[in-house]
Hints:
Strand content: 35-45%
Oligomer: single chain
Largest sheet: 9 strands, mixed
Strand order of the largest sheet: 1-3-4-5-2-6-9-8-7
Number of helices: 5
CATH topology of the largest domain: 2,3-Dihydroxybiphenyl 1,2-Dioxygenase, domain 1
Structural class: mainly beta
Number of strands: 18
Distance between the termini: 76 Å
CATH class of the largest domain: Alpha Beta
Number of domains: 2
Radius of gyration: 20 Å
Amino acid sequence: MSAAPTAAPLPERWFRATPDSARLPRPRLLARSLIHLRELDEQIGFYEELTGTPADLRMPIPDFGGLELAAVGNMLLIASIRPFTDIQRRTTHSVIVPSLSGQLDRLHDIGGTVLEPPETILPGSRARVRYADGTIAELVEHRPRPGERPRPGRHTAHHDGAPRLLVRRAVSASAFPAAVAQYESILGTGCDTRLQLNGISPIRLATVGDLLIVGTDGPEYTVSADIDLALVMTGPLDSAYVESAPAAERPAGAASARHHVVRLRGGTLAEVWDTSVGLHRAAVPAGRGVRVAEAGTP
């Protein structure tokens, strides 16, 4: 009798703190940064230092375009030696889902469409979708490989000034209520915090899990709508983390004294918010009410 075939060994450097995403209580939303493979180790170290949290997955995927992925908090680093395709660049964020079929059913219910149908990949399975508002996202279902066990990342010292890193989505003022409802359905959780900052260009803010939704017709939408990352701070961002803060990238208007845009080391743009506006540096329980904050007040 011939021996049963053995499973192929996992690629070198492979680890996941949660190999089976069915264990997740809700979908995990991740901002995306597309980088060259030679930058990956440096960028992992940068986001570990910035957030005070270790990488919790690293996945070389040689059979999928030679990609290598790593996640630190809510940031997904996607590294490759090849140029990224147009659709990869237009994909706003990734979502690790407990069930891909369940998430696609939910997508249908809220008017989304499937751009790339489900396919099996080394981590599990994936699909690329477009939400009703035009946002393109990649959905990934993780399942353990034969013999794979959960493996946490290396220990990283937490520091008091560590920001809360959020995925950012900017919409027009009129689209804000629909955006909040859409992402509550997509992420399977209610809105944590709602704020309104009144001024020359009123701004409405909402957090849904690890997503910050910015609703305004001011420059935070008209000029900076393509910024996909937000940092919530209790004080100034250490200059060691910043590559530049060009004046042209700083939103003008009512709340500019308490938020601005920086280019982080490595080139990613991030909108930095001070907690004085009412956003929290750590996740807060769902069910918070609306707080109205006048621009220029604490």
